[in-house]
Design brief:
- This protein is mainly β and 196 residues long.
- Helix content is 7%, strand content 40%.
- It is built from 2 helices and 14 strands.
- Strands 1, 2, 3, 4, 5, 6, 7, 8, 9, 10, 11, 12, 13 and 14 form a 14-stranded antiparallel β-sheet that branches.
- 36% of the residues are buried.
Length: 196
């Protein structure tokens, strides 16, 4: 019994060489290593301004992801999902197979094709919260917590949340502590090691 106690102490860090420091889980935020050259990221990786696009630092590996954007200042903007192959200096996104985005005019584009459109009376304005769900097949949009019934699909491969701005637009990203409760079955983005 004493031998077992000694082994436990040495393995648990009581002076033993088997101590392993626990790493803090990373925070999902905008990735300054994957952004356009004229993009400015502030507020601890949560606010985007300038001109261009930025990916989040976590891919959407889980089955059902949810994230939000708050429009702080209007202008030209877009939000959605994209692969790492997307050109982050070319706005608007949605021109090729590497992005699927809602644009500020209410259109949803992928591969230079309009996939859907928000109702005319539901265009996001300054102060609005746009929620996005993605389940590896379909992207859905929510305006201030209300489902817009505006599904879009078509993008393939590993995707990341993406946001672009131009013409004085400022958007804040919310990857946790949401303004609105995610739809049933959807949750915040998890890093791969958090899933297993």
């Amino acid at each position: 019994m004493a031998g077992m106690f000694t082994c436990c102490l040495s393995c648990c860090g009581e002076g033993g060489s088997g101590h392993i420091a626990l790493k803090e889980m990373p925070t999902v935020q905008l990735d300054t290593h994957h952004m356009g050259t004229d993009v400015v990221i502030v507020k601890t990786g949560r606010r985007i301004c300038g001109t261009g696009a930025c990916l989040a630092n976590a891919p959407l590996h889980q089955n059902k992801s949810y994230f939000e954007f708050k429009i702080q200042s209007t202008g030209v903007w877009g939000i959605g999902v994209a692969t790492q192959k997307v050109n982050l200096n070319q706005v608007p996104l949605g021109r090729d197979t590497n992005s699927l985005v809602l644009r500020n005019d209410g259109s949803v584009y992928h591969n230079n094709e309009e996939k859907n459109r928000l109702p005319a009376n539901s265009l996001p304005q300054e102060g609005d919260i746009v929620g996005i769900t993605y389940d590896h097949v379909e992207l859905n949009l929510y305006l201030n917590g209300k489902n817009m019934h505006c599904p879009a699909s078509g993008i393939r491969g590993t995707v990341y949340p993406v946001v672009y701005v131009d013409d004085s637009a400022i958007l804040d990203c919310q990857f946790s502590d949401f303004y609105h409760t995610p739809p049933q079955g959807f949750e915040k983005i998890l890093f791969e090691q958090q899933i297993f």
